[in-house]
Write a structure and sequence with these properties.
The structure is a homodimer of 244-residue chains. Chain A has 244 residues and is an alpha/beta fold. Chain A has a single domain, classed as SGNH hydrolase (Rossmann fold). Helices cover 43% and strands 10% of the residues of chain A. Chain A is built from eleven helices and five strands; from the N terminus they run βααβααβαβααβαααα. In chain A, strand 3, helix 5 and strand 4 form a beta-alpha-beta unit. The first copy, chain A, is globular and about 70 Å long.
């Protein structure tokens, strides 16, 4: 028996979402016995490379097995700057937007009713990126940032604009995180990836959007009877009522 | 595209395994991009009630969609004592053993190559159970334990004996946890359920058994190319090599 599936499609920030305190495992726990949360996170991937995965992860022609909801969470790698150390991951912002559009169009072909939530990249703490690079490469570390908060913000704006254009829900993580003092250290572990608290923000925002779209765990049925509903003298009754 | 699936089938200790530091989410993280870890945990269930779920969770006749591995982790509720507050969950130990055997036989019908790992219930800290009951029910709390460590140990022994009889791998959690000083507080949060450290023990033991059975994440292929394998001038090549 398959439960409804929620797919998390994205880069390393999605791939790492099942680490302790991660937003993916918190979602999985919240939807316990109601939906399966499936991670499709690809560290280092930009949207250009993500397109190669689309038909493998979301095959056409089987809407019964399509997820009920998908988060699309790219952009942190697309926004790497040209001519800097992460140059090869760079994707121009217009192409980034167009690639997200292609992903959305494909998902809507898989299932027109699928809830699609776009998530912008988080903000960048350039000082944090620099310290991180020095901790790994020492003197050889880049002197100029490979990502800036300003440029990443432009990708976030394009993501928000696309969501509006397509009538999709969107989590503007770039803006949301910067509303909090000390977001640089509080939410980011290396200037880019998320601390457990940063994961908490993603979890809260994604859950809120899911709930607004009627995908609230409290309103979804349990897959099988709650144990308190089972009559120990006649257990089969509860299962006849709920499983057949 | 479906990845190999690892199903965790059990009671509340399995259902809670995606909480922060939980053994399920740690497994999911370890098998990232290699296998999907799917939780089928049912709080309060004993093996008698679990039998009603078998054909729903593990349908016959589709071995291609059967999991590559399943953990069967029941017994904590079966071992509740007769005539005490959790009486309705009690299942006699011989029936418990027979029910686990039925689950195994069904899974082997689904897929003869499926790796099946039996997990015994963890030990019981009777004082911890008592404090927990008092914290919830105050003066009305049970005066006599609804579970004892000794009786739960008999269920664990039967589980281990069945694994030997059937040639299955087994994690004897009941014994393993008691090898450590202060296991009562270190591993159990309410005398029965697991602390993050207790979850760590389950994670380490289950991973070890999976690895011994050749299901080691290090030896399994990534689902798609690692980002460093993608030539940014000719990205399709990496995907042709790996995805077609």
């Amino acid at each position: 028996m398959r439960r409804p599936e929620i797919i998390l499609f994205g880069d390393s920030i999605t791939a790492q979402s099942f680490r302790s305190g991660g937003w993916g495992s918190r979602l999985a726990d919240a939807y316990s016995r109601k939906a399966d949360v499936v991670v499709r996170g690809y560290g280092g991937y930009n949207t250009r490379w993500a397109l190669f995965l689309l038909h493998h992860i979301f095959p056409l022609g089987s809407s019964s097995t399509s997820p009920v909801a998908t988060t699309i969470f790219f952009g942190a790698n697309d926004a790497a700057l040209r001519g800097r150390t992460s140059d090869r991951q760079h994707v121009p912002v217009e192409e980034y937007k167009d690639n997200i559009r292609k992903i959305v169009e494909h998902l809507k072909k898989c299932s027109p009713t699928m809830l699609i939530v776009l998530v912008t990249p988080p903000p960048i703490d350039e000082a944090g990126r620099q310290s991180y690079a020095e901790s790994i490469y020492g003197e050889k570390a880049m002197k100029k940032p490979e990502r800036t908060n300003e440029i990443t913000g432009i990708y976030a704006q394009h993501c928000v604009a696309l969501a509006e254009e397509l009538g999709l829900r969107c989590v503007n993580l770039w803006s949301k995180m910067q509303e909090t003092d000390d977001w640089q250290k509080k939410y980011l572990s290396d200037g880019l990836h998320l601390t457990p608290q940063g994961n908490g923000v993603v979890y809260e925002e994604v859950s809120r959007v899911f709930r607004e779209a009627w995908l609230a765990p409290d309103e979804m049925p349990l897959d099988f009877p709650h144990h308190s509903q089972i009559d120990d003298k006649n257990p089969s009754k509860a299962f006849e009522d709920r499983c057949l």
